[in-house]
Amino acid sequence: MIQLTNVHKKFQLNGSEIVAVEDVTVAIQEGEIFGIIGYSGAGKSTLIRLLNGLEQPTSGSIMIHGQEMTTLTGAGLRHARQKISMIFQHFNLLWSRTVEENIAFPLEIAGVKKSERKRKVKELIDLVGLTGREKSYPAQLSGGQKQRVGIARALANDPEVLLCDEATSALDPETTNAILDLLTDINERLGLTIVLITHEMHVIRKICHRVAVMEAGKVMEMGNVLDVFQAPQADITKRFISQVTDTADTDAAIAHLREEAPQGKLVKLAFIGERTEQPVLAELIRKFSIDVNIVQGNISTTRDGAYGTLVLQLVGDVAIIEEAITFLHANEVKTEVLMND
Amino acid sequence: MIEQWFPNVNWEKMWVATGETLYMSAYSTFFTFVFGIALGLLLFLTSPGQLWANKMTNVFTGAFVNIFRSIPFIILIILLIPLTNLLFGSMRGPNAALPALIIGAAPFYGRMVLIALQEIDKGVIEAARSMGARTSTIIFKVLLPESMPALVSGITVTSIALVGYTAMAGVIGAGGLGTLAYLEGFQRSREDVTMMATILVLVIVFIIQFIGDLLVKRLDKR
Fold it and tell me: What is the ipTM of this complex?
């Protein structure tokens, strides 16, 4: 439903040329939540603005619902934008308008009649959970409430696509989760396609179906969130994943162990999906006469299932340890040897 | 007791002069507000990166504003005598002061409008664009409402300056409290007349400031 083909975007800044987006080809399916992750300056903000024509690409094609966006101008572009709405990191509400007037704004732009506007605004206020705050001004709301107004405003004209520009980056962790739940809910209930950009892997893990990792204007890696989590290819992806899996303690614990107890094998296990719910470890201990020392472990849940890592120290006969690792493989547990004695 | 302190004041003349001052101030404030906003919007929208980004228009408007803002008012009045004659067929009376007052104040206010518009969060304009708003919608539903408190406090300051300018307009026989204070008070050494005219100007200024502050307070929801 959204197809970007060989999209380039260059800026001229003080005579020098800056490449913000370089040869991006991405296909986003209808009804999916597609995440684009990258550090600031990776070009993701520019990329998302290409989708609603706030920026025009230097070259390439952007098709949304069979409509080529790059050739649209004037009324055609304005009309298309009513179906591709956007929410922002800093909410961008009109402070001179109340909550309900802010939500009514896109309806005014679309020329919706007053009685119809009133009905729609009420419905949206209920949907985003702001009942009772209709007459409040943005200055009287918390960050999370402001983003709810932003979401309600974005949904006013029944869009087909919702673009989220770092929508949770200015919120605290708890509010972030509440807003992400709301986005998931909207995605499921209204079948809305959501494209979001973020620098937080947590956001991708929690709500996205697929992810594209961007660095220096290019898409370095793309795929289902769970697949990318299991087997990240690019270095940048590994760095993002370590945001949610590894803690700073992991490396310290392993380093400590290397010094204090250098015997045996140090193995990192990766469990995917249902494997995380099976007692593989208990079986391993029962079956093989080796000592198993748990160094570190955690589980990350993604939309399509859980992903867990466990670092074990296996001490005992080398042959038995090899057998134990073969057993793990047979049980679809990926292993990576971190250290041999 | 007032008769005792202000023995030389001709109250009828004083009220007529007050009326003239109010007339000149009100009309010039109104037109300054309209033209100043137009100038400020033009300056803002044609500046780089904005909706009508256009270097030529921007530089030209900027130059126009700067020229008329820097001509001393007393000279501007004299320079505009031919225009005034053309517009009103005369260069006497309160109307004769209006062109000079408006042309002197609108560019000054235009700069204030520009500053007010620059204070608006760029993200809000971007949000309106992302909703498919046309430029006129952005002007009337985003730019002006969002900057209204600053626009009102700016016009309050400008309006008070205009009250002062009307006093100078006396040189072309525009009338008003300034003329009265100068001709009837200063030139005839009747200090009480000068004093009374000053008090009335002060009262007008205080009232304008009070109304301005009240409006800003009501408008500002931040």
Answer: 0.87
